[in-house]
């Protein structure tokens, strides 16, 4: 169950990153409220997951999910650029996440 909490916390990190962008510096109410709610829920689920998952593993995977997810959301919904260097960076992040998960078994 802790891994599910961690996965959901990572997805919520993607949500708050995207809605923070949509809030235009917290000047739009609904995206701002979603951002703050998703942040609180994400941090809480991360804390719950850390009860059993080691700090280094949980935090690395949480931030990795957020980073890769925000990258994909940026490309898909915000027309951010795609180039070889950015794709290689994401591959390296995912590789690190897989290694971190494997090393915590």
TrEMBL record:
Say yes or no: keyword Transmembrane present.
yes
> Membrane spanning segments where?
27-47, 59-78, 84-102
Q: Which UniProt keywords apply?
A: Cell membrane, Membrane, Transmembrane, Transmembrane helix, Transport
Q: How does it sit in the membrane?
A: Multi-pass membrane protein
- State its location(s): Cell membrane
Main subcellular localisation: membrane
Q: Per its UniProt record, what InterPro entries does this chain match?
A: EmrE-like, Small_drug/metabolite_transptr, Small_multidrug_res
**PANTHER family per UniProt:** GUANIDINIUM EXPORTER, SMR FAMILY PROTON-DEPENDENT DRUG EFFLUX TRANSPORTER SUGE
| Family, per entry | Belongs to the drug/metabolite transporter (DMT) superfamily. Small multidrug resistance (SMR) (TC 2.A.7.1) family. Gdx/SugE subfamily.
Specify the protein name. Guanidinium exporter
User: Origin organism of this chain?
Assistant: Vreelandella vilamensis
UniProt lineage: Bacteria, Pseudomonadati, Pseudomonadota, Gammaproteobacteria, Oceanospirillales
